[in-house]
UniProtKB/TrEMBL annotation:
Keywords: Cytoplasm, DNA damage, DNA repair, DNA replication, DNA-binding, DNA-directed DNA polymerase, Magnesium, Metal-binding, Mutator protein, Nucleotidyltransferase, Transferase. Residues 7-183 form the UmuC domain. The keyword Plastid does not apply. Mg(2+) binds at D11, D101. It holds the Pfam family IMS_C. The gene is dinB. This is DNA polymerase IV. It comes from Microbacterium insulae.
């Protein structure tokens, strides 16, 4: 027996743009683009005209000249996320956050006190709309994978339940791009041998899929195509890292511009570390070059830290090592992750303790930003510059 369709995948629709339309009534029903140089989000009215996330601002305005372009408001998006996640956790204690705007919820044990999974999903959507003012799509299925696909198919502002007996009928006709982990490169490999639907991939032998896509990826995707996904909703997993990134478009960037963007990303992430009493040991620099090839560089410090100056120094060193390649190939995305996280109270202070080492400055700046907003104080190098809006991540689950 396959079990009950009791996993919910809840995903806020066009999240940033929906928050803007919620807070500014004159934007409702109109095409909205969040971000100028690069599209961070687009309302469904703009998406209908071909605008997509990470698209260059000029191309987006050519496709949708009547779009209203608004600057991002990360504080507003963070608060909306917190409000929605509070509703998730009020619905069930079994919540696994995936990002700032989506989560899995396990509701199988709530039938007697809260009704069927579908009834719970209906109430969840109604609460998010009434209490937070945002549309949300929900997929309900037996596995996390199918629930995620169902929520995507139900968009915008929809609800789709995939019962166990209807799983094959639902999944197999869908394009292979719907599989979790199939990007443009993998899709092209499959298309070249005539595989365009999930059902066609499921008909392959597993060994053939592994030979075509690589052992790990082939086995994973073949299992999903054959409806095998044993992963439970995981509420205990702590984030091994936190990160932030910025799409840069295609124009050339100077070393100074990249340094400003890098500094902004580090400032945001180290503030988040301190907010959640975390320290880290490893800094990871992620790059996407002008030819869209990706690269990763990392370095670990000897002792875990939450100090902005220390971690920024490491990040700058990693970027300096990549600059020759960037000059040759260009750059379209830069990102930073802080990994090997630990609790601040688990770190022993080293002697001699240097009281004027920057920790006090970090604390003061955090307090100012908490009281007056993230943009209230900035480094001198950032004055008059692009604010460098980045994609935030959901803070660690405590």
């Amino acid at each position: 027996m396959r079990g009950e369709a009791s996993v919910l995948h809840a995903d806020l629709d066009a999240f940033y743009a929906s928050v803007e339309q919620r807070d500014a009534p004159h934007l409702r029903g109109r095409p909205v683009i969040v971000g100028g140089g690069v599209v961070l989000a687009a309302s469904y009215e703009a998406k209908a005209r071909g605008v997509r996330t990470a698209m260059g601002g000029r191309q987006a305005r050519e496709l949708c000249p009547d779009a209203i372009v608004v600057p991002p408001r990360m504080d507003a998006y963070s608060q909306a996320s917190k409000d929605v996640f509070a509703i998730f956790r009020d619905t069930t204690p079994l919540v696994e956050g995936l990002s700032i705007d989506e989560a899995f919820l396990e509701v199988g044990g709530l039938r007697r006190i809260a009704g069927t999974p579908e009834e719970i999903a209906v109430r969840l959507r109604a609460r998010v709309r009434a209490e937070v003012g945002l549309p949300i799509s929900v997929g309900v299925a037996r596995t996390k994978f199918l629930a995620k696909v169902a929520s995507a198919v139900s968009k915008p502002d929809g609800l789709l339940v995939v019962e166990p007996e209807g799983e094959e009928e639902f999944l197999l006709p869908l394009p292979v791009e719907r599989l979790w982990g199939v990007g443009a490169v993998t899709a092209e490999k499959l298309h070249r041998i005539g595989i365009r639907t999930v059902g066609q991939l499921a008909e392959l032998e597993e060994a053939t899929a592994e030979r075509l896509l690589g052992r790990a990826a082939g086995a994973h995707l073949h299992a999903l195509a054959r409806l095998r996904d044993p992963r439970p909703v995981d509420t205990t997993r702590r984030r091994g890292s936190i990160g932030s990134q910025r799409a840069l478009g295609t124009r050339a960037r100077t070393a100074d511009e990249l340094d400003v963007i890098l500094t902004q990303l580090l400032d945001r992430l180290t503030r988040r570390l301190r907010e959640h009493d975390r320290v880290c040991r490893t800094v990871v620099l992620r790059l996407r070059y002008g030819d869209y090839a990706k690269a990763t560089r990392s370095h670990s410090v000897r002792h875990p830290t939450d100090r902005t100056a220390v971690l920024l120094s490491v990040a700058r060193s990693l970027l300096a090592g990549a600059l020759p390649t960037i000059e040759q190939r260009g750059i379209t995305l830069i990102g930073i992750s802080l990994s090997q996280l630990g609790r601040v109270d688990s770190v022993q202070p080293e002697l001699p303790i240097e009281w004027d080492d920057g920790a006090r400055l970090d604390t003061v700046l955090d307090s100012v930003r908490d009281r007056f907003g993230a943009a209230s104080v900035a480094r001198a190098t950032q004055l008059g510059r692009d604010p460098g809006w980045s994609t935030p991540v959901l803070p660690e689950h405590e």
